[in-house]
C-alpha cells in the first residue's frame, strides 16, 4: 500500500510540474555549470562561462586560466563586452572581466550521442565586437544537431599591444582564443559536444584569427576551418612592434616618462574607458604582430603570414569565401564630388607597396583596369567597390587558398555570397539600400541576430535553410 501511495505521489508531482522549466546542469572538469532552456527551440544555453581572467597587474599581457568553480556557476548572462568603442551605440564600453564563452547544445546531445562542435570567433577588426546573441543567435545553427560555441577575446590595446618585452610580446587576444580552445577541448564533452570533432570558424577579423591559428606552430585543437571574408593576409591585419605606444598613451594622461615599465605600470591603473578613448584620440592602431623570441616563452606568430607556412592546415578541410561587394557600405551613398576627388588607387598602392619610380606607371595601369582614365563620378562607384573589395578581401583570400594547397589541406570549398534579401545584416544595420551583398551580410542567414525583429520572409528562409545546412554539413562531415 505504501509503495502504491509513493507511486501515485510521484505521478501527481510529475503532472503538476510538467510545465515547469528545468534548467540544465552539467558537471565539467572545472565544476558544476547551470544553464537555461532556450525559449525559441529545443536547445540549452550556457551563457558567459569564464574561461580565463585578465591579470590586473599586467592587463595588456597574458591572461590566466580561470580557477575551478567552488559552487554551481549560473551561466545566465552573455552581455559581457571587452573594452571597445561599441559599433551599435558609438559609446566606449566594456570590462576586462570579459573572457567568457557561450555554449549552445541541442537537446539531442547526450553522453552517448556527442555532437560535432562549431567554435565561432566574432569579427570587428580586432578592435570591437562580442560573442553574444545580439549578432550570433544560435537558433538556426543548432537545429541541425551541432553544438555552437561563441567566444570573447581581448581587443585593441588590451588584446594586441605588441612590445619587444616578454611581459607583453603581442597577440594576447589570439592567445585568449587559444585558451578558450583548450578549455573547450577539456570540457565540451560535458555539454554533449565531441572534442574530436571541432570546427574553428569566424568572419572578418574572426576569419583572420582562424588563419592565424593555422599559422600557429603549436597544438591543433580543431579538425576543420571556416573563414568568411577574412584571412591573415588581409591588409592592415599586421603591425610592427611599437615600444612607444605605452609612452604615448601615458603622455596623453599627462604622465611623462621615457621608461616603458613606468608607463605600463601607470596605464594599468587607468580605467578601461579612458584607455580606449586615448587610443582613438591618438589614432594608435593595435593589430597582430610578429613576436620577438624570448627564452622559455612560446610565440604565437613567429613569421609574417605573407611568407609563413600554415602547418595546421595539413589534412583538414577548409570552407572559405567572401560576399560579392565587400566594400559596398563604404561607397554606396557617395556623391559625384566624392569620386571626382578620390585618389584611392594611388593612395592604396602608396600605403602598402614600395614601387619607387614605377609608382606612376603601376597606378595608371591599375586605374585603367578598373575605371579607365576619365574623371570619376558616382557612375564609377561599382568599379571602385570592386577594386577595394578585391584588394581588401578577395585577392588575399585567393592567396590564402594557394597557401592552403601548398600546405596540403584536404579539400578546399570556395563560395561567393551575393544574395540580397531582408536579412543582409550589415545593410540592414547601416540602412544601405544599394543592391548587392556587403561585408558581414551573410551573418543574418547563419545566425538569428536580435536586430531582426520580424520573422524571415519565405525567400529569406530558403537561404537560411540552405546556408545553415551547407555550413553544418561541413561541420559534421567536412
Which tags fit this structure?
478 residues; 3-stranded mixed sheet; alpha/beta; disordered N terminus; 9-stranded mixed sheet; globular; 2 domains; Rossmann fold
| Percent in strands | 15-25%
* CATH class descriptor name of the largest domain: Alpha Beta
Tell me the helix content: 25-40%
Q: Per CATH, which architecture of the largest domain?
A: 3-Layer(aba) Sandwich
Total domain units: 2
Shape category? globular
Compute the number of strand runs: 16
Computed Rg:
24 Å
Poorly predicted regions are 1-21
Structural class: alpha/beta
What separation lies between the terminal Cα atoms? 58 Å
CATH superfamily of the largest domain: Alpha/Beta hydrolase fold, catalytic domain
CATH topology of the largest domain: Rossmann fold
Oligomer: single chain
Number of helices: 17
Largest sheet: 9 strands, mixed
Strand order of the largest sheet: 3-4-10-12-11-13-14-15-16
Kindly state the mean pLDDT as a whole number?
A: 93
Amino acid at each position: 500500500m505504501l509503495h502504491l501511495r509513493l507511486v501515485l505521489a510521484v505521478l501527481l508531482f510529475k503532472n503538476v510540474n510538467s510545465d515547469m522549466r528545468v534548467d540544465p546542469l552539467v558537471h565539467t572538469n572545472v565544476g558544476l555549470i547551470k544553464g537555461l532552456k532556450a525559449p525559441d527551440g529545443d536547445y540549452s544555453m550556457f551563457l558567459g562561462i569564464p574561461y580565463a581572467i585578465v591579470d590586473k597587474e599586467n592587463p595588456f599581457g597574458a591572461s590566466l586560466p580561470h580557477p575551478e568553480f567552488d559552487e554551481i556557476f549560473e551561466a545566465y548572462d552573455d552581455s559581457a563586452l571587452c573594452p571597445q568603442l561599441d559599433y551599435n551605440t558609438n559609446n566606449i564600453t566594456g570590462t576586462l572581466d570579459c573572457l567568457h564563452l557561450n555554449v549552445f547544445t541541442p537537446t539531442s546531445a547526450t553522453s552517448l550521442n556527442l555532437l560535432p562542435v562549431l567554435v565561432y570567433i566574432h569579427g570587428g577588426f580586432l578592435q570591437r565586437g562580442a560573442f553574444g546573441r545580439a549578432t550570433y543567435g544560435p537558433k538556426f545553427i543548432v537545429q541541425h544537431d551541432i553544438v555552437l560555441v561563441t567566444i570573447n577575446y581581448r581587443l585593441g590595446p588590451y588584446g594586441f599591444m605588441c612590445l619587444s618585452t616578454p611581459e607583453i610580446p603581442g597577440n594576447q587576444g589570439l592567445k585568449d582564443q587559444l585558451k578558450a580552445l583548450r578549455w573547450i577541448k577539456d570540457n565540451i564533452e560535458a555539454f554533449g559536444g565531441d572534442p574530436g570533432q571541432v570546427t574553428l570558424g569566424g568572419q572578418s577579423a574572426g576569419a583572420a584569427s582562424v588563419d592565424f591559428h593555422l599559422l600557429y606552430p603549436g597544438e591543433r585543437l580543431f579538425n576543420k576551418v571556416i573563414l568568411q571574408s577574412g584571412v591573415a593576409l588581409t591588409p592592415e591585419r599586421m603591425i610592427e612592434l611599437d615600444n612607444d605606444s605605452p609612452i604615448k598613451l601615458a603622455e596623453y594622461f599627462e604622465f611623462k616618462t621615457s621608461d616603458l615599465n613606468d608607463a605600463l605600470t601607470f596605464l594599468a591603473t587607468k580605467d578601461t574607458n579612458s584607455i580606449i578613448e586615448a587610443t582613438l584620440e591618438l589614432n594608435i592602431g593595435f593589430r597582430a604582430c610578429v613576436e620577438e623570441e624570448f627564452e622559455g616563452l612560446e610565440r604565437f606568430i613567429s613569421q609574417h603570414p605573407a611568407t609563413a607556412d600554415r602547418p595546421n592546415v595539413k589534412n583538414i578541410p577548409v570552407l572559405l569565401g567572401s560576399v560579392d561587394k565587400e566594400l559596398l557600405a563604404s561607397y554606396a551613398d557617395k556623391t559625384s564630388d566624392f569620386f571626382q576627388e578620390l585618389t584611392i588607387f594611388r593612395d592604396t598602392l602608396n600605403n602598402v607597396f614600395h614601387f619607387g619610380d614605377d609608382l606612376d606607371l603601376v597606378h595608371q595601369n591599375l586605374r585603367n583596369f578598373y575605371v579607365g582614365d576619365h574623371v570619376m563620378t558616382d557612375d564609377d562607384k561599382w568599379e571602385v567597390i570592386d577594386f577595394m573589395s578585391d584588394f581588401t578581401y578577395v585577392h588575399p583570400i585567393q592567396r590564402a587558398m594557394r597557401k592552403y594547397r601548398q600546405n596540403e589541406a584536404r579539400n578546399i570549398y570556395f563560395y561567393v555570397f551575393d544574395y540580397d534579401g531582408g536579412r543582409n545584416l550589415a545593410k540592414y544595420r547601416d540602412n544601405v539600400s544599394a543592391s548587392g551583398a556587403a561585408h558581414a551580410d551573410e551573418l543574418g542567414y547563419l545566425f538569428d541576430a536580435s536586430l531582426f525583429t520580424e520573422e524571415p520572409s519565405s525567400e529569406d528562409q530558403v537561404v537560411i535553410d540552405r546556408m545553415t545546412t551547407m555550413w553544418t554539413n561541413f561541420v559534421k562531415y567536412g
